Amino acid sequence: MKITNNRSPLAQGLVHEDYLPLRWKFLEQLPSTNALNHLNESNESYLRIFASLEDPKLSYQGNDEHFSEISHDLTRVELKLNLLLELTRHVLSHQLPLPDRCHVWVGAYGIEWQTGNHPPEGKYVMLDLFLMPHYPLPIELPGQVVDVQQDGELSKVIVAYQGLSEASQDWIAKINFRHHRRKIANQRSTNE
After folding, report:
1. Of 45, 103, 140, 153, which sits with the fewest C-beta atoms within 10 Å of its C-beta?
2. Regions of the chain short of the pLDDT cut 50
3. For the segment 53-93, what is each residue's pLDDT rounded down to a tens digit?
4. Domain count, the chain
């Protein structure tokens, strides 16, 4: 979890820290309302898929024989889908190279990352963040650079999202909560 000052977009809610592929480009202005609606629909769909792929498997403890047969069939289908996803990932990884990974802090209202090449404060940007580097499909995050801080040879850039839907922000918050909960569970298990 990241501690930030109160005016930072990362000050509200949990923040997920990771090393993820990220690229940015300048925007002269924020996308139109129509373009933002399409972008938000795409982001919400992507975040739902990401959350479902991350969700831990639920185990069934009952003795229902019928459920056991269905579970076995579903497992076979899941294995086939996983194989298909892996084959697709392999092909796409050679066709669509990802940007370099960088140290990122992702919040529901903004993002921070470390970089040697950064946009100036006050500029609008479109960020492509690859939450699942195995599958080269980014979430697109429009925003405005609200702070740039020199940190040794690198700079820390903070962007506040602009025009991101409440549903997209909620999905990011849910994913961050899952990461936080998983991190605490892992810490407890290593301390025992």
Report:
1. 153
2. 1-4, 56-62
3. 766 443 344 455 555 677 777 777 777 777 777 777 667 66
4. 1
Summarize the chain as % helix, strand, coil (round to 5): 40, 25, 30
Sign, CA dihedral 119-158-37-85, equals positive
Provide the domain limits for residue 173: 16-56+99-191
The two structure tokens encoding residue 67: 């459920």
HSE on the CB side for 131, CA within 13 Å? 22
Sequence-distant (≥ 6) Cβ neighbours of residue 55 within 8 angstroms: 178
Task: Give a yes or no: residue 52 inside a domain.
Answer: yes
Provide the pLDDT for residue 68. 67
Q: What is the pTM of this model?
A: 0.77
* CB 99, CB 23: distance < 8 Å: yes
Domain with residue 23: its CATH number is: 2.40.10
